[in-house]
Amino acid sequence: MTGVVGFWLTHERELATFVAEHVLLVAISTALAVAIGVPLAVFATRRPRLASPLMAAANIVQTIPSLAMFGFLLPVPLIGGIGSRAALTVLVLYGVLPIVRSTIVGITGIEASIRTAGVAMGMTSRELLRQIELPLALPSIVAGIRVAAVIGVGSATIAAAIGAGGLGQYIYRGLSMVDSTVILAGAIPAALLALIVDGSLLWLERRLIAGRRTGSGRTAIGVAASLTVLALLGSAVLAVRSPGAIVVGSKNFTEQLILGEMVAQVIERETGLPVRRRLNLGGTLICDRALLAGDIDVYVEYTGTALTAIFNRPAANDPAMVFGTVRDLYASSGRTLLAPLGYDNTFAILVRGAEARARGLRTIDDVARVAPEWRAGFGYEFMERPDGYPGLAKTYGLSFRTPPQVMDLTLSYRALATGQVDLIAGDATAGLIKGLDLVALEDNRRYFPPYDAVPVASASTLLRYPQMRKALEGLAGRISAADMRDMNYAADVQHENPADIARRFLDRAR
Amino acid sequence: MDDLSLMVGTGETLALVGASGAGKTTVLKLVNRLLLPHAGDVRVQGRDTREWDPIRLRRTVGYVIQEVGLFPHLTVADNIAVVPRLERWPDDRIAARVRELLELIGLAPETYASRWPDELSGGQRQRVGVARALAADPPVLLMDEPFGALDPITRRQLQQEFRRIQARLEKCVILVTHDMAEALALGDHIGVMKDGQLIWRGTPQEIVECPDSRVRALVDTVLSFPRPEARVRPG
Questions:
Q1: Last residue of some domain: A189, A218, A239?
Q2: Among A132, A280, B26, B165, which residue carries the largest CB count within 10 Å?
Q3: B55 at interface of A, judged by CB pairs closer than 8 A
Q4: For residue B234, what pLDDT is reported?
Q5: What's the CA gap between B205 and A244, in Å, rounded?
Q6: CA nearest neighbour of B61 among B8, B16, B1, B125
Q7: What mean pLDDT do residues B90-113 have?
């Protein structure tokens, strides 16, 4: 706990920004959900036959996991892609259902005699709605808004995966660094935010119900409205980012965060252009889409990943050939592959150091002999990719005691160190290899294709800012695998800030 | 419901009496066009309800509904002011009218104007319901069991007040009740309904002598327990 407090104190400014972004995301999405949900519900009460299909549709939307929803929205123009707009779309979709439901319940729950009285007094449908139905349904509507906002606070943490900002950034950062302090640094404020939102809207709801007697309902709404406006203004001030000319992206693991920082800082240092960071994007495809859509201008990709995962070509083993193929493929879609940074982040088959020394394991061939007694754990991606597990098993004739366990890549290091599994496929540059005393076995049959780290940038941005290309070319061949492993170690094991690590490297290399 | 012919003039009160389900409320709903007749016509101020703009018609016809139906989120004053507000009266005129009506129904404005419906007794709520129906001074007033669900003493008190009010206001009133005593006490004319049909109509004097056994059954319930308040209204 003291660790978390310490983290907050050293990241005061960043924390404030993340909280502000989170509040803005939830507030704006909830407001939009109200603007859509209430009229929709009113419409449904006017045409009861439409009410149940409407509710069914809203229910189905609610069951789609948010990460999947972000996935669906990636290729959608205007409301999709990455960034806060796509996040708002998802949060609004989630928020609409509880608001529709509670509004329908609120309106249909009004005593028939009250509605009859209104109609018989000559109220038009509109007057009835504004003077009778909505005021009487208000406590119920507020209850729905409360549910929507609390769901929003939770879902917004996931929105960090598509670069929408917010407290989820700490959670993802912590997950990729296997650092529970950083996870808690994001999770605790998110939970507090949910409690505050829940508590204050519950208070408003109660005041509204009581307000019919005491007349304080209007005051309560006034208080709530002014507090909301204050929170929004404050958040807007804090969340405003410098309008970066260049947007740097990265995937959501430690090495990528460090590389993203390094690319951003190099551009800032060498060109003086304002840079915006959109780090921690949720995976290869999201980065690729973002680059294609112009949401980001540059990020670091790995040649082997680009070849197989982005362009769906068969894996190949010759580094120069792979680089050439990928460069041409990128060029034909308006993107430029720059010069390799210098190291190859290929897969590494890892075992516990003690085990390797005791049994004299050096190569993957050595392991094939003992594998039948062992359990393996692999990331989702490794199980599926063409250059992943199936080919590996075939090349080396590997078979394990049980089918490999599928687990989160970053968690698999710990699983290996603690003996839950005996072999994993990690990254050759993982800092945890050093930190957890793991050993990378030699790929003696040269199964794994090359994964040279290379910045890939939007060709039009490079044309507009030729100085940016020059700055990035300055990094060519400068980072060795050992450098990268040390930097990852500094982040994953020593819990240093990726920005500081990148800065130190650039300072030293200057 | 079929075969129904009724006419009510200004300053007259027609009391429709009958068991529940006899179609009394339906008659009221035909008048303010909450329902439209399948055949025949309903005329208000000489005009077919089908030709009336329903909103205009309903603001011309005051309606006291059986369940009272006061708006729980509005004060007594605001409940009474609903139709004048819909009609966009100026505020001072509305305030004066609310005051006048509260006095008319015997609730002191200083005490009751700012009360909430759930702070009132059943009888007070019924009175506010009547005041609300009268607010924009409609020439026609429909009252559906306006004094139902009250204890006998309050009921008698309100009936007396109604007679007093009607004597002053000279409305065209249709009053629905299942209670023959109330019909005799308040109606200038009485219509007896059974199974959707009007089986008898006439003055209170005539009904006492009516030979029809179905009507007699209703009248006897009252006459066998004579009450001074249930006397036929003089004049």
A1: A239
A2: A280
A3: yes
A4: 47
A5: 94
A6: B8
A7: 92
HSE-CB for A184 with a 13 A CA cutoff: 11
Interchain CB contact of A128 with B (< 8 Å): no
| Statement: residue A308 has pLDDT above 80 | yes
Residues from chain B that touch A122, judged by Cβ atoms under 8 A, are 54-59, 83, 86
Average pLDDT over residues A469-494: 90
For residue A481, what pLDDT is reported?
86
Nearest CB neighbour to A120, from listed B63, B70, B86: B63
Structural domain range at position A380:
347-441
A335, A254, A437, A504: CA torsion to nearest 10:
90
The pair of three-digit structure tokens given for residue A387, joined into one six-digit string:
């250059």
- Asked if A213's CB is within 8 angstroms of B71's CB, the reply is no
CATH of the domain at B158: 3.40.50.300
A115 within domain boundaries: yes
Residues A430 and A466 in one domain: no
pLDDT band for B228, please (50, 70, 90 cuts).
very low
DSSP element (H, E) containing A457: strand A453-458
Name chain A contacts of B89, Cβ cutoff 8 Å: none
Please state the φ and ψ torsions of residue B192, each to the nearest 5 degrees. Answer: -105, 125
Alpha-carbon distance B29 to B232, whole Å?
28
Compute CA distances A181 → A91, A170, A185, A318, A435, whole Å. 27, 9, 6, 41, 17
Query: What pLDDT is attached to residue A148?
Result: 93
Alpha-carbon gap, residue B43 to B7, rounded angstroms:
9
Spatial distance between the Cα atoms of A505 and A483, rounded to a whole number of angstroms:
9
Query: Could you read off the pLDDT of A388-439 as tens digits, one per residue?
Result: 888 899 899 988 998 898 888 778 888 999 989 999 998 888 888 888 889 9
Interchain CB contacts (distance < 8 Å): A and B? 63
- 3-class DSSP state of B88: coil
Closest CA to A24 of A333, A231, A302, A268: A231
In terms of DSSP H, where are the helices of B87-198? 91-104, 109-112, 122-134, 152-169, 180-186
Q: Which residues pair with A431 in a beta bridge?
A: none
Distance separating alpha carbons of residues A414 and A377, to the nearest angstrom: 11
Q: CA geometry: angle at B121 spanning B118 and B125, to 5°? A: 75
Cβ atoms of A379 and A407 closer than 8 Å: yes
